[in-house]
UniProtKB/TrEMBL annotation:
Record PROSITE patterns: HTH_HXLR
Keyword field: DNA-binding, Transcription, Transcription regulation
Entries under Pfam families matching the protein: HxlR (PF01638)
GO molecular function: DNA binding
Organism: Actinocrispum wychmicini
Protein name: HxlR family transcriptional regulator
Amino acid sequence: MTDAGRKLVVDRQGVTIIGDGFQFSTSAVPRDALEPDLDGLVAQATGAGEVESVITGLQSMTRLTYGQYCALSRALEVIGERWSMLLVRNLLVGPRKLADLQQGLPRLPADTLLARLRELEHGGVVRRTPDEVDGEVYELTEFGLELDDITVRLGQWGARLLGEPRAEDIITPDALVMALRSNFRPEASFGREAGYQVQIAEFDLVVYAYVRDGVMSSGVGPLPGGADVVIETGMNIRPLLTGELDPDEAVRAGAIQVDGDPALLHTFVADFRMPAASPQPEN
């Protein structure tokens, strides 16, 4: 459970966190709590009444506070760490197993993933719940679900920063679902109904969006009951939705494939219109 430059040591003497300029130790961990992962450690520490001191020590030593009596600074101390908001983004799509969260953020080291989840749990944003199929899943609490509108608005703001994809960029199902939610234009779909399914073969990705009279639902996988149109695209989904790529020309050129009524490609673009990238200010 360490970021670069920090070391977590669990042994028979207890827990020690070592980093640049600090060392935090606790010796109240029972012998049977000496598990190789933090989840086991904290579960055992709870029984000994030591979880609060362990987590408080982790937060204060491995993540600096802003030292300001300010609501925004407090919020950022909970969700402002690297990767935290992407975990929130994915959990807004639905509860996820630990393996699913790892798969959805492949560049996130496993120890950092556990650290971020533990911080979000301690902040009241995330909880673990038993699941009949998956055993245990992570989900947002009621407090965490209040980040829904904030995440959508932040996605709208960030859409203007996308520009061309970087060489290492990927698209994940949860990210695309939230992108559709962020860019949905309710006014464009008043008085009609359509079921869309978007597929990106490069990333083995399938998501859906169902629109009816200004209301939209979306999720990962095929649209239950079948879609009115299946749109096969790729990284060119951004220029398609910004209007930089003409839908008819894209279909004629084979850049986008449509299975279903071709006219629904135009309604898809209208329903999920994205802003064009804004010029970046020069430093």
